[in-house]
Amino acid sequence: MIAAHTPRELIFSDVTNDIGPVALAIEGALPDWLRGAFIRNGPAQYSFGPVQFRHWFDGMAFLQRFEFGEGKLEYTGRFIRSESYAAATEGRAEYQSFATPAARSFGSWLAGVTSSNITDNTNVNVARYGDASVALTEIGAPRCFDPQTLETGNLLKFADDLGTGPTTAHPVRTAGGWVNFTLKPGLRSEFAVWRLAENGSRDAIARIPSKRPAYVHSMGASRKYAILVEYPYRFDPLAMILGGKPYIENFHWGGDETLIHLVDLTGSAPPVTCAAEPFFAFHHVSAFDDRDCVVVDLVGYDDASIVSDLYLDRVRERAPVAPGLSLRRYHVPCNGQDATRETLSNTRMELPRVDVRAERPRYVYAPRVGEGDAFTDGVLQVDTSSASQRVWERPNESPGEAIFVPKPGGNETDGAVLFVAFNAREKRSALVVVDAATFEECARAWAPAMLPLGFHGQFWPNY
Ligand SMILES: [Fe+2]
Questions:
Q1: What is the pTM of this model?
Q2: If you measure from the C-alpha of residue 421 to the centroid of ligand 1, how many angstroms do you get, rounded to a whole number?
Q3: Class at the top of the CATH hierarchy for domain 7-460
Q4: For FRET with 456, which of 37, 109, 366, 378 sits at 20 to 30 Å CA-CA?
């Protein structure tokens, strides 16, 4: 464990134990309609004696649960008891992960030599697939967990033969069900874009060949299309199989264009591919159909250097350079002509969220990325219709992803914005509730300790 001093070092220091369940005292007033569980996922521990993970994305998965009910708030935090976690706690570096090498190579997994050395550390997101609550990552199978106790369950087995190749931890909700892709790397690599059927089968709705596939962290969807964007941050499958490098170190920035694939969700027409300027993104925000275009909002960068800037030794020391980091809107013609960009906000932000009920969400919620000591230093509410924005901010406080929880029956500003903020002066975290209409803080509840900043979470009114 490193000795943490600066706010950045504190945010990326280790949480080493499960927490709770514990009742949290509430300052202010929770909305009286707020009932349910806010469940978050993300990395929490990076150092295990001889095993030292190198990148933020490699930390061991820690599920967090805030249960709201009758003016009370209860917190639980638990590590996922995966094989990778067991190995790390026993000092064994056996599993290939995002950016940390292991004894056996990632390539041997891709080549089918072994299936057991790929990490099962599902540390990115959570979702509900039918009755199953699952923790998700992008280079392994989903992991089931108990949404009440956060106890670890089995790996989820899909009822199909699409395999366990690289995917995203961001399944996108469509009217017909969850949509995502699985990449099958090889001499003829292809992205199989699938929809999850009720029987647990991933039904392929399109197959997109790609000689040198891109790193794709999330997808978008409008009513008509799933949107898969291949940034010029690509890998050579053969080199990956032979090279023995950790997953992300096989990807290289280059090329002069981004390819945006529009996948007809009915599966009745082949995908349409449009070219765009070279750029990179982790996170789609939303997408909608607009006459002969699909409008795709995302948080974009001019290049993929953000991936390198999130190695722990760098991110603990300095703010990511993140060239061109902005909220962007791409107009993507359905006839395959080149896509064009519009900038919605030049404020540096990440981990964007919207009201998922809206066909054309107007408001985007996102932590503001800091430029100095703080990794993040506020939460933004961006009005995409006017480019105006409001901000929640408190001295010494760094927020994680902020999610919008709609008041039942309410409109797009009738609800609460929930996030965890770390206070570097107090060295502890609080769950913060902001009124989406006024964008004023209405309640907070201090946790007994520092909580991991985490990646992504969901609010489940019924669980
Ligand atoms: Fe993500």
A1: 0.95
A2: 18
A3: mainly beta
A4: 109
